[in-house]
Amino acid sequence: MDRFSALINDIGRLLGVYWESYLSGMGSTLILAVVATAIGCVIGLVCGILNTIPYSKNDSSAKKFFLKLIRALIRIYVEVFRGTPMILQAVFIYYGLPYFTNNAYHFDSIWVASILIVSINTGAYMAESVRGGIISIDPGQTEGAKAIGMNHFQTMTSVILPQAIRNIMPQIGNNFIINVKDTSVMFIITFTEFFAVHRNIVGLNYMYFPSATIEMAGYLAVTLTASLILRAVERRMDGKSSYELVQTDNLTMTAGTYSHPDRGTPFDERSSEFGEEGRKRIRSGLKNSNGSSREGR
């Protein structure tokens, strides 16, 4: 118990002196994670769509070659950035650019470099998630869309993508949570985020474990909050558990598909058409069209 009391006391001392630094570091981490995840999702969406454009034997050789080339380039991009650590990607991009250009080109902003690195890494993971989400949709829906005259673009935007995006929402949230934690490797290019603040503070007072405890609690609070928000978004996208028949569409008002709670359908005994006045109208119509009523036959 004495050690726990000492830990709480040390944490209080650190927060009393460095709380602004911790808060600033957490803010940088959140901004980087949110922006990079959003850009990475766009990159993954584009790559996933390009990777699933269909082609047939009847298509021109130029179209087939172009689509195969795109798929090969996307595959190389995905495999390289999924198969290497982000910390090495940061080194290669941030320090490799001036190395190969003899310092003619370099990053003037550490923010731009960090967002670019994390976005490209996220895009590689999202590309496969989007591709999986697209091919998970029943092919019959694509065939149905084509049957009513939709082209590939209309099918993707109106039929496939809305369902695919819902299917990959958990993966988007997972990538965001990963980015919150993995931004800690950006200290390698001198980006000051939450973990870099911890390293700086420990270098000043050597209180490693109390500072690490603050870091752990901070990361956990952010990731748990993000998980709750993302689950709420998923439930929102799912809609209501029970659906009501749309009563404003003319198609749903046709006989046999719609039952008014008060009037029923034209073929229901509750309908006014089956009352005495309704029967008179039907007999009158038969007389006018056939010249005689059924009773007279």
From TrEMBL:
GO terms for molecular function: transmembrane transporter activity. Keywords: Amino-acid transport, Cell membrane, Membrane, Transmembrane, Transmembrane helix, Transport. Pfam families: BPD_transp_1. Residues 260-279 have a biased composition (Basic and acidic residues). GO terms for biological process: amino acid transport. Residues 254-297 are annotated as: Disordered. The chain crosses the membrane at residues 30-53, 74-97, 109-127, 176-196, 216-233. It is found in: Cell membrane. Residues 26-230 form the ABC transmembrane type-1 domain. GO terms for cellular component: ATP-binding cassette (ABC) transporter complex. Its main location: membrane. Residues 286-297 have a biased composition (Polar residues). Coiled coil: none annotated. This is Amino acid ABC transporter permease.
